[in-house]
Amino acid sequence: MRHVPNILSAARILAAPYVCWLLWQREYSAGLIWMWIIGATDWFDGYLARRLNAQSKLGAMLDPIADKLLMAGAFLTLALTGAIPVWVAWLVLGRDAVILSFAIIVLAFTNIRREFPPTIAGKMSTGGQILYVLAVTAAAAGYIPAAIPDNGVWAMATVTAWSSVDYAVRATRQS
Fold first, then answer.
1. Whole-prediction pTM value?
2. Which pLDDT tens digit goes with each residue over 93-148?
3. How far apart are CA 59 and CA 138, in angstroms?
4. Most CB atoms closer than 10 Å: which of 21, 28, 56, 144?
């Protein structure tokens, strides 16, 4: 039972390319269903890890990898198919590149492993990105009006940019 959270995280990693393939094929209804399943699994593996006191270093690595793989893949695929503007994907992927670059730079120049815990800006950015991808996919599937993600893109973009700057400032202060 103790390994179930890590198995669920690994399953999310394996499912992410399938979701991207569904989006590439413009199978938006199926993609949306799988995104909800993966989201529920993400919540459930975290719940189980806490409930069973089964948090592990492996789980701490697998969980964010699964999240980033799905989100980065979804943004890239949606941009390549024209479902979202390319600049949106560049912004989201660029944010992750900024965070990763600053973490690598701090590690390289200080030789000390630093923690970069999620900030409020980071959590808002991630939440906005998730809602945006779900809204775009739901609109492409015909479940909601296209105006909803079209109107929400600027809020998501603003908080994503803010988060990028916030992480860069924090990393600079730590170094």
1. 0.88
2. 998 888 777 777 767 777 666 666 778 988 899 899 999 999 999 999 999 999 99
3. 30
4. 28
